[in-house]
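U., I forgot to send this yesterday:
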Amino acid sequence: MRFWILVVLVSDNGLQFMDSNFEAYLKDLEIKHKRSFVAHSQGNGQVKVTNRTILRELEKRLEGSKKTWPDELPKVFWSYRITPRTGTGETPFKLAYGSEARLSVETGSPSYRVIHFDEVSNIEGLKMNLKLLDELRVWAV
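Result:
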């Protein structure tokens, strides 16, 4: 599993995403590039909002050192995935996988759910979350 990098990048049809250097970069990282359809302009708007959010967070982290953006990008994506969206009230991670992400801080400093982990009940809970995932997605829209 690749938790640190994108598997698919969905973008609008902007010229910056049509660049051969950008396509080569994505190909080197084995990232599939999908473009939204011109007929679905609301998709372009959603992509722009997402890109704007990611760029703002990236700019905050760089603070003048623009050369380190490749190192910061996975952290920004992770932050985006685990932050609840205003429109849905849910995190993109939960909408994709059916459960909340385990934060990296829980690895070094165990949280309540790590200390009281029970494998059997965890598996049952994950199965239930997956059964309810479609309903969660409907309510999030």
